[in-house]
Amino acid sequence: MDVMTIAVIAIVMLLGMVVTAYIITNAINNQMGELYAALIERELKSESPAPKREEPVVSPREEKKQMSVSGVNEDELIRKLRQVIDEKVQRVIDEARHKKERLLMLLDVARGYALGYISEDEYNAFLMKVLAELEEFKRLWLARFPSQKDREKLNQVISYVARTKLPVKVKSKDGKTAVELPPEEALIRITSSINNAVGILDELIQSRGENPAVTPLEVKLSQECEKLRAKVEKLEKQLEEYRAIT
Fold first, then answer.
1. 78-213 has which CATH code?
2. Residue 181 burial by CB count (10 A; 0-12/13-18/19+): exposed, middle or buried?
3. In the predicted model, what is the mean pLDDT of residues 24-51?
4. CA 111, CA 215: separation in Å to the nearest integer?
C-alpha cells in the first residue's frame, strides 16, 4: 500500500469522525434545548395561579330536583301537611259532638262514684284524660274557626269540667275553712258543671249552623222540633194566603 492510499484512507476516516461528531453534537444540542424548554414551561406553570374553577349554574328546576333526590321536597312536604290539617279541621264539628259524648260519659262516671262503684282516684284519672282531650279539641276548633269569642267559650268549657275534680269542696259558712261534700252532693255540683260545659258546646255547634244532638233522645227531639217548625211555617203561609184572599 503506497503513501497516497494511506493518506486517502486517513482523510476519509477523519471526515467520518468529523461528521459523526457533528451529528452527535447536534442531537445533544437539540435534546438539551427541548429539555430546557420543558423545564421553563414547568416553572411557568408552577408560578402562575391555577385557573378558578367555574361552579356549574344550577337552574331552579334542577335545584328543586336535587332537593327531592336528597330526600326532602319542601313543596311536597307542605302539600301533605296542608292536606292532613284540612282533613282534620273539616271534621271539627264531629269532634265537638264527640267531646259532648265524652262529657256525658264523665257524668256517668260521676254517677258511678256517687253510687260507690267508682273510686275517687278512678274518676280523677278519667277526668284528666277528658281535660287533655278538650285542650286538643280547643286547638283544633280554633284552627278551623279562629275567633276570640270561641276561644273564651272553650276556656269556659275546660274551666267547668276542671271544677268537677274530686273531692268537691265548698267554703264553710264562716268562709274560713273548706268543707268536703259527700258523694251525693258532689254529684249535684258535678252535674251542674258538666251541663254548663255541654250547653256551651251546643252553642258553638249551633253557631256554625249544625245540629248539636248526639244521643238518641236528643236526635229524636230535634227531629220532632224540625217537623213542628215545618208545620208552623206551613200554617203561617196558609194564613197569609187566606188574609190576602179576604
1. 1.20.120
2. middle
3. 58
4. 18
- Domain ranges in the chain are 78-213
Could you tell me which residue, 6 or 112, shows the higher pLDDT?
Answer: 112
Within 8 A by CB and 6+ apart from 142, the residues are: 150, 151, 154
pLDDT tens for 88-128 read 666 888 899 999 999 999 999 999 999 999 999 999 999 99
Cross-strand pairs, 171: 178
Helices (H), the chain: 3-47, 60-69, 74-90, 92-114, 120-144, 148-162, 183-207, 216-245
Tell me which residue has cell 264539628: 93
Place of cell 282531650: 133
CA dist 20 → 23, 31, 208 (Å): 5, 17, 114
- pLDDT > 90 fraction of the chain, expressed in percent and rounded: 39
